[in-house]
Design brief:
heterodimer; A: about 130 residues; B: about 400 residues; alpha/beta; seven-stranded mixed sheet; three-stranded antiparallel sheet; 13 helices
């Protein structure tokens, strides 16, 4: 029996939206190579919507599949909707992850959240300066 | 699609001759070796034939062989059993930092039972310095356990030199030869050890069977209590078919070992030499020369081992990795860390362990398949992206 299900394997073998965004509106980096996985998410925001989501991932099969799934779930969503993506909802969309791999999926949603936070932080400073 | 199995350290396949040697004990000859009737006689004969064959493989006396349920059990029995039998003499045990978990965790259990354990370090090639073993000895040291060869990085340890030191100091010396026995010549007289573990599935025998040899006169306490099987040193009805298979595998290994090494070493050397030539930022792990004949191990920078393993699997190639993600405990290989390799680099661990079925064509295929797999993962890796940006900036 394979360790990963078909859906996870599909996202691992054919990861969606891989890459970086030049002049991204927000960047979120989580994890470190010591713990095993590291992900950097890039977002482009237009009219409060995630117009584009890209990422780079260092890690195992699950980490790559999770990044791909998060990018797919987030793309086109409003910021509020995207913030609702959780490790559990990502794992559910992937139809389950091996128990010991569940921590990897935490990172995907967390990295996206950080990218959104980064964007919102920049908006505030921008707004502050204009006032 | 071409299929290339390069994970012989996990297990070797079963040789047809070994299977044939096992079959009578799965069919007609089903008796319990402890029984006194004809049925028992047949099974007992199988055990004793296997005992002779395993003993011959390591140049030992048959009486010293204790059959176990695995290499892991043999190591448990050695570490716990040899230490516990001598606890009145002392409660200090020495192991190397790169031992298999069956030795390391047994040593940890001994700590819970009131023993003290010293770990001797290894150098960057994974080699133990015998002088470090000497320095770690104390008046109350009762056991030293250093592996013959490491299954993860392939390094062969200076067992003979360590044995001289333990003999001078009258300390019992066990070596875990699971990765070595049946693969390279292992002779207890040449090595001078007091106890040695081996396992069937490392040299084309069945899984679930191993053996511990203990020198005559060296006391050992059983860790499984029950009947008086194996001279009272390992209770439980013997796994007769598996033991018969182990015996046959030992006989074939003894006969063919030189031929096997001659076949494996040039294929291994091609991987060790050509892979780092085809892929940038790859390091060989383990000793460059003094290593197992079928063992080629590397760390590939900027990417992770499990992802490499899975992509190679999709191309029909079976390998293993010591990365944190590959281990169920999600911890990087203690062997690589003990060798001074960073956690980050250890994540890119990959090992190719060749077997008698390996071919030059298979190695060609791996050398052709690896670079695009590595490139694909690097294109996805934030670490590689940082590295390329930094090196561009540097120029």
């Amino acid at each position: 029996m394979p360790v990963y299900n078909e859906k996870v394997m599909d996202h691992f073998m054919n990861p969606r939206n891989v890459g970086e965004i030049d002049n991204a509106d927000g960047v979120g980096e989580v994890g470190n190579p010591v713990c095993g996985d590291m992900m950097t998410f890039y977002i482009k925001v237009k009219d409060n919507h995630l117009e584009d989501v890209k990422y780079k991932t260092f890690g195992c099969g699950a980490a790559i599949a999770v990044s791909s799934m998060v990018s797919e779930m987030a793309k086109g969503k409003t910021l509020e909707e995207a913030k609702k993506i959780t490790p559990k909802s990502v794992a559910d969309e992937l139809k389950g992850l091996p128990k010991q791999k569940f921590h990897c999926s935490n990172l995907g949603a967390q990295a996206l959240g950080k990218a959104i936070e980064d964007y919102e932080g920049k908006q505030k400073t921008k707004g502050g300066k204009e006032q | 699609m071409q299929k290339v199995y390069l994970d012989n350290t996990a297990t070797t396949p079963l040789l047809p001759e070994v299977r044939e040697a096992m079959m009578p004990y799965l069919e007609g000859v089903f008796g319990n070796p402890s029984s006194l009737h004809d049925w028992g006689d047949g099974a007992r004969e199988a055990l004793e034939t296997a005992r002779d064959r395993v003993a011959r493989l390591i140049g030992a006396d048959a009486e010293g062989i204790i059959f176990t349920g695995s290499g892991t059990e043999a190591n448990n029995l050695a570490v716990k059993g040899l230490a516990m039998a001598q606890q009145k003499k002392g409660k200090h045990v020495v192991v190397s930092a790169i031992e298999h978990f069956s030795v390391l965790h047994s040593a940890r259990t001994l700590e819970k039972w009131g023993f003290e354990v010293s770990e001797v370090p290894v150098d960057k090639h994974g080699t133990v310095d015998p002088e470090d073993v000497r320095k770690s000895l104390r008046k109350d040291t009762v056991l030293v356990s250093v592996m013959h060869a490491n299954g993860e990085v392939g390094t062969i340890e200076p067992i003979g030199e360590i044995a001289k030191i333990t003999r001078e100091n009258n300390v019992v010396f066990h070596t875990d030869a699971v990765a070595a026995a049946g693969t390279v010549p292992v002779d207890i007289k040449e090595l001078g050890v007091d106890a040695l573990s081996l396992a069937g599935n490392q040299f084309y025998g069945p899984k679930g069977v191993g053996a511990l040899w203990v020198r005559k006169g060296v006391r050992i306490m059983p860790i499984i209590d029950g009947g008086i099987q194996e001279g009272g040193r390992r209770a439980g009805t013997e796994n007769v078919p598996a033991i018969a298979g182990l015996g046959k595998a030992a006989e074939l290994a003894e006969r063919d070992i030189a031929k096997r090494i001659k076949h494996l070493a040039p294929l291994r050397d091609r991987l060790l030499k050509e892979l780092p030539g085809k892929i940038e930022n790859v390091v060989v792990t383990g000793h460059p020369r003094n290593r197992l004949p079928g063992h080629a191990s590397f760390c590939v920078e900027f990417i992770e081992g499990e992802a490499m393993l899975m992509l190679l699997n999709s191309k029909g190639v079976a390998v293993s990795s010591g990365s944190a993600c590959t281990s169920r405990a999600l911890k990087a290989s203690h062997v690589l860390i003990a060798m001074g390799i960073s956690h980050e680099l250890a994540q890119g661990s990959i090992l190719f362990t060749l077997g008698i079925d390996s071919t030059a064509k298979g190695i060609d295929y791996v050398l052709e398949t690896m670079p695009p797999v590595v490139d694909r993962l690097r294109q996805m890796s934030p670490l590689y992206s940082k590295f390329t940006k930094a090196s561009k900036g540097g120029k």
